[in-house]
Amino acid sequence: MTRPGRTERKTRAPRPKHARTLSTMDKLTVVLMVVVPALIVTGLVWVPAISTVVLSFTDWNGIGNISDMNFIGGQNYVDVTSNYPPFGPAMEHNLIWLVVFFFGPTLLGIFLAVLLDREIRGSRIYQSIFFLPVVLSLALIGFVWQLIYSRDQGLLNAVFGGQTDWFGDPDINLWAVLVAAGWRHTGYIMLLYLAGLKAVDPALREAAAVDGATEVRTFFQVIWPVMRPVNIVVLVITVIESLRAFDIVWVINKGRNGLELISTLVTQNVIGEASRVGFGSALATIMIAISTVFIVIYLIQVMREQR
Amino acid sequence: MTAAVQETPVRTPVRRPQRRRPARVVLTVFLTVMAVGWVFPVAWAFYNSLRDYDFTSTHGYFSFGGFTLDNYVDAWTRGNFGQTFYNSMVITVPSVVITLLLASSAAYVLARYTFKFNLALLALFTAANLLPQQALLVPLFRMFLNIEVPFWFSDSGSLYDTYYAVIAVNIAFQTGFCTFVLSNYMKTIPKEMTEAALVDGAGVFRQFWQVVLPLCRPALAALATLQITWVYNDFFWAVAFMRTGDKFPVTSSLQNLRGQFFTDYNLLSAGSVIVAIPTLVIFFLLQRHLRAGLTLGATKG
């Protein structure tokens, strides 16, 4: 964006600083305008997140008074890791989710963006088509893909004549889910990357072409380094989305039988009858710990751009 | 990377047209195959939603014919869509409106005035949207269950199982992201615009409401479109904070259509199409805004 006012301002007579001209009423307005939203975000996001971490060191079962709870150190974490069979598979599934998302949909999305960034006839139409699943919720995607995966009425078995229950068989359902979820993630990454590529200075590409670089070389040695901020955003989004994955497995079977994820374990332990608050909090704290690393990476990137 | 890229030796700009041809063909074929594969799941659901169950069960799904609209009528009543659409609207509209109001006012202050804590506040807002929802679940669930409210306010006597709980959490979760996007946008608006208003004697709030906010219309449109899609699509907060069946948003209607032992997939297809309609309308009519909203947040617009 251009700022036409910028150059003009320098020629004008100096004016008192903005903040100094504020009346008491205005000062109050300014404070309220930022404090109210900040309090809401703090109260409903940050305080709960920190409370989760605190609760994970207690034995509170959610029923008694909060004053009845005892701090029991890392006992919940010992229980989670050594005494809770679904934990191992859930960690493994989340990790598989991340690795598959990264090497599948994320790279495919980047690749499609690079292809569609060139002058291709109908590029907008291709973009729209790959973007389509992004507007659907993951829960809905779970239902839509049942028409393809169902054992008795699904398309896959009708075409290939098998008897596989794609969403039900614990050996393969995670992979079937990943195809469906990746269908959405690819379009999302393509969109983000394409926006980044559009912002790259065309002169860079022209200079590389004049120097005789191939398109592949131009991409890896000229475009890729310039795209560093977008690359980081894409990496963070892929990790966070893999960690957050929930809706699609919840509508399929509530995250059981081969589809255990940390997110579904937390939910199972907290809502419904089995309210194991401390234990569920320990599981949630593991999610917080992992996501914090990537949130910090993201913030460093974003705040650097703010300067 | 596939041949489409590698087979493009662009040595000198002059030779480009002839040598590019085969690569172009490969590229077009590749993209077309991918695109057809991409729309297929949606097209398949739509196709079968228009077909009679008896026809597909005798001829198989891999057939042509048996067209009817009965599935839609049936799905609408059996899925209780009238009620669940209403519920989704009651949750989505206030969530999006309040989110944008809060976010734009916070963004205005952060973009226009310089405090010591500016960057820290921006980080507080920006990071909030990146936490996994489950990280907040335990305390929020307990909190809503334990906050007592009068019965005229909620049947359950607490905030649990009310729209208020879901709306409040949606607002808190989305405000951070919108604040970040809007403050970046507002920084591109020249300060002279508000200084002129200041000279005319307008207070801070009027400068914000009558000068800056109207200039943010493109960003607000993009965010509104994006937020409507996100809040409408949200499933987790409703699962977490709702219990009564007829308060759930639309996605739960699909669960009503799925039987315990037997599922009529034509009916489920029709239901899926019904659920997708609002977001598909946005996709076809407001795609520009939606894409702007998504990319404004990720790359500095």
Defining traits:
heterodimer; A: MetI-like fold; disordered N terminus; B: 301 residues
Describe the structure.
The complex is a heterodimer of chains A (307) and B (301). Chain A has 307 residues and is mostly helical. Chain A has 2 domains: 63 residues, no CATH class; 173 residues, MetI-like fold (Orthogonal Bundle), CATH 1.10.3720.10. Helix content of chain A is 70%, strand content 0%. In chain A, helix 4 packs antiparallel against helix 11 and helix 11 runs antiparallel to helix 14. Chain A is globular, with a radius of gyration of 25 Å. Chain A starts with a helix and ends with a helix. Chain B is mainly α. Chain B has one domain: MetI-like (MetI-like fold, Orthogonal Bundle). The longest helix of chain B has 34 residues. The interface between A and B is large, with 119 and 113 residues. Chain B: This is Multiple sugar transport system permease protein. Chain B: Keywords: Cell membrane, Membrane, Sugar transport, Transmembrane, Transmembrane helix, Transport. Chain B: Belongs to the binding-protein-dependent transport system permease family.
> What class, by secondary structure content of chain A?
mainly alpha
| Percentage of residues in DSSP E strands of chain A | under 5%
How many whole angstroms does the radius of gyration of chain B measure? 25 Å
Shape of chain B: globular
| Residues in helix, % of chain B | over 70%
Mean pLDDT of chain B: 85
Quick one: biggest sheet of chain B?
Answer: none
Q: Enumerate how many helices of chain B there are, as a single number.
A: 15
CATH class of chain B: Mainly Alpha
Annotation, overall tally of beta strands of chain A? 0
Main sheet characteristics of chain A = none
Number of helices of chain A: 14
CATH topology of the largest domain in chain A: MetI-like fold
Q: What topology does this entry show?
A:
The complex is a heterodimer of chains A (307) and B (301).
Chain A: H1 5-11, H2 24-55, H3 75-82, H4 87-117, H5 123-131, H6 138-149, H7 155-160, H8 173-198, H9 202-210, H10 215-226, H11 228-244, H12 247-253, H13 262-270, H14 277-306
Helix pairs in contact in A: 2-14, 3-14, 4-8, 4-11, 5-8, 6-8, 6-12, 8-11, 9-10, 11-14, 13-14
Chain B: H1 3-6, H2 16-49, H3 53-59, H4 70-78, H5 81-112, H6 118-128, H7 134-146, H8 163-186, H9 191-199, H10 204-215, H11 217-233, H12 236-241, H13 251-257, H14 265-285, H15 287-298
Helix pairs in contact in B: 2-14, 4-14, 5-8, 5-11, 6-8, 8-11, 9-10, 11-15, 13-14
